[in-house]
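B., you asked whether I could sanity-check this one before it goes into the benchmark set. Here's the sequence:
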Amino acid sequence: MHVLILGGTTEARVLAGLLHPRTRVTSSLAGRVAAPRLPAGEVRIGGFGGAGGLAAWVREHAVDAVIDATHPFAERISFHAARAAATAHVPLLALRRPGWVPGDGDDWRDVASLEEAAAALDGLGDRVFLTTGRMGLAAFADRPEWFLVRSVDAPDAPMPARTEVLLDRGPFTLDGERELIARHRVDVLVTKDSGAAATAPKLTAAREAGIPVVVVRRPPVPEGVPTVASPERAAEWALSR
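And here's what the prediction gave me:
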């Protein structure tokens, strides 16, 4: 039994640990992070060259099942996985952590894209805490606000003219997020609905500070792909093949 995990997320690493050494596991990482945390089992880094390349790799390496445990916003690889699995005639499962849900006192503005998030900033505030990752900052490049951009690796240009970059990796603490928001006088937060517990404290800190949050909704899982919410359920699925 050979399971291919498309990952890089915390859940993907947990899943690899649950499966290895009970079965052969290969985790595929995109290579966008300079020093990724490596999972148990075999690891490959880099793209496949689209759905066709992924299907060919699956056949060549005798993969019996594919689990898409990529970031909820890795839309392209998820659709490539769906096409490749259908082409190679192997079962595919999507592992997606639950999304965030607003609570009492939250002031959230849901948008469908980074471009909509940038437009939603009109009149919301002047000092923006931007936690949408190092790519996609071009959507905010023409904005006049000051931005605090937090990412694991240095972000790509173009980016807003008034930007301070904070290189950091979660998990983040509530006390740390409170202090960061206060120290930088943040008055609006922009984030993606990644659903990760490791980065959720910023939402609590924003609620306590009474600042609005612009939340980019995650794209849907490709139609017809079954989905589970935990590494444990994904491991059960794989081992039952």
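One thing to flag: The chain has a mean pLDDT of 95. Otherwise nothing jumped out at me.
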